[in-house]
Specification:
The chain is mainly α and 311 residues long. The protein has 13 helices and four strands. The protein has one domain. A two-stranded antiparallel sheet has the order 1-4. The chain has a two-stranded antiparallel sheet with strand order 2-3. It is globular.
Length: 311
C-alpha cells in the first residue's frame, strides 16, 4: 500500500468535489465528530485551579488523540495491502483535506471586493479569520484573506497530507485531531490559557515541518522565487506564530505585497509586525494572483507525492 499515492487520491477527490453538502447533512464530517468529543470533555473538565485546568486540558488532548488513533487503526486493519487498500485509504482520507473549501472561501471574498462591495467582502472574510472585519478597508480585507490562504494551505492541506503520506490514515486523522484541538481550546484567554496550553504546543510541533514545506512550495512555484525566499529569511521568524510566518512570508514575497501588521481581535488591538513591510498593500486583484499560486503549489505537491509513490 502506498500512503503517498493515497494522499494524491484524497487531494484529487477534494479538488473535484470537496465535501458535498448533502453528505454533510447526513453524516456530518470527521472534524465535527472530533469536535463533539472535545466539546463534551471541555464542558466536564475545564474548571478549577490553573494547574488542574492544565492537567485536565492535557488529558482532553490525550483522550481525543487516543480515540482518533484507535478508530483509524481499526479501520486500517481491514484494508488490504494492495492497490485496493491504497484507493480506500485515499477515499477515507478525502474529508480530512480542505483544498477546495479554502479556494472557495477566498474566491467568495475576491468577487465582492473586486466589485467594491465592502460589506459583502467583510462578511465573506469573517468566515475565515478571527479578527474583527467590521472596519477593514479593501487592503485590510485582502490582507486578511491572503493570510488565511497562506496559513490554511499549511494547516488544512500540506500538513495533513504530509502526515498522511508518512503514516497513512492514522497519521492524517491524528493530525486533524491536533489541529481541531488547537482551534477549539488553544486560545490565549481566561477560559483556555491553561486548559488548551498542551494542545497549542502540540499543534506548534506537528506543524513545524509542514509550514516550512508550504513556504518553500509557494516560493519555488512562483515567478518571484528569490523575492519569496528573501522574505522568508528576513520576516518569517518575526511572525507572532512560530509556523505561520513561513507560508505568509513566502506568499507576500511572491505577490510583492505586505501582510500581517496591526489587527483587532474583539476589543483588543494587536500590534503585529509587518511581513514584507516595504511593499504596498494588497488589492482585490492580488487575491486572484494568490489563488493561482495556491493552485500551482498544490499541483506541485500532488506531483511530488506521485513521484514519491513511484520511487
Amino acid at each position: 500500500m502506498s500512503f503517498a499515492f493515497a494522499m494524491v487520491i484524497a487531494l484529487g477527490l477534494d479538488a473535484l468535489i470537496g465535501w458535498p453538502t448533502w453528505l454533510f447533512k447526513r453524516i456530518g464530517h470527521p472534524v465535527t465528530w472530533i469536535g463533539a468529543l472535545i466539546t463534551v470533555l471541555e464542558s466536564k473538565w475545564n474548571d478549577g485551579s490553573n494547574f488542574k485546568r492544565f492537567a485536565l486540558g492535557s488529558l482532553t488532548s490525550i483522550v481525543t488523540l487516543a480515540a482518533t488513533l484507535l478508530a483509524t487503526f481499526l479501520l486500517t486493519v481491514w484494508l488490504p495491502e494492495t492497490w485496493v487498500g491504497t484507493v480506500l485509504t485515499g477515499v477515507l482520507a478525502w474529508p480530512l483535506v480542505a483544498a477546495r473549501s479554502m479556494f472557495t472561501h477566498v474566491q467568495d471574498v475576491a468577487r465582492p471586493l473586486t466589485l467594491g462591495d465592502l460589506p459583502k467582502a467583510r462578511f465573506a472574510v469573517s468566515m475565515i479569520v478571527g479578527r474583527d472585519p467590521s472596519h477593514l478597508d479593501e487592503p485590510g480585507i485582502a490582507r486578511a484573506a491572503l493570510e488565511s490562504l497562506a496559513e490554511n494551505c499549511s494547516d488544512g492541506i500540506v500538513a495533513p497530507v504530509f502526515w498522511g503520506a508518512l503514516f497513512g490514515l492514522p497519521g492524517i486523522a491524528v493530525y486533524k485531531a491536533i489541529n481541531t484541538l488547537d482551534s477549539m481550546i488553544g486560545h490565549h484567554n481566561d477560559r483556555y490559557e491553561f486548559f488548551g496550553k498542551f494542545a497549542a504546543r502540540l499543534d506548534d510541533v506537528v506543524n513545524f515541518l509542514p509550514s516550512r514545506l508550504t513556504g518553500l512550495l509557494f516560493a519555488l512555484t512562483s515567478t518571484k522565487t528569490r523575492a519569496a525566499l528573501r522574505c522568508i529569511r528576513r520576516d518569517a521568524r518575526h511572525h507572532r506564530s512560530p509556523n505561520a510566518g513561513w507560508p505568509e512570508a513566502a506568499l507576500a514575497g511572491a505577490l510583492g505585497v505586505r501582510l500581517s501588521g496591526p489587527r483587532v481581535y474583539g476589543t483588543r488591538k494587536s500590534e503585529e509586525p509587518w511581513v514584507n513591510g516595504t511593499c504596498p498593500d494588497p488589492r482585490s486583484q492580488d487575491l486572484g494572483h494568490g489563488l493561482r499560486l495556491y493552485t500551482i503549489a498544490l499541483l506541485a505537491l500532488a506531483l511530488g507525492l506521485a513521484l514519491w509513490a513511484l520511487v
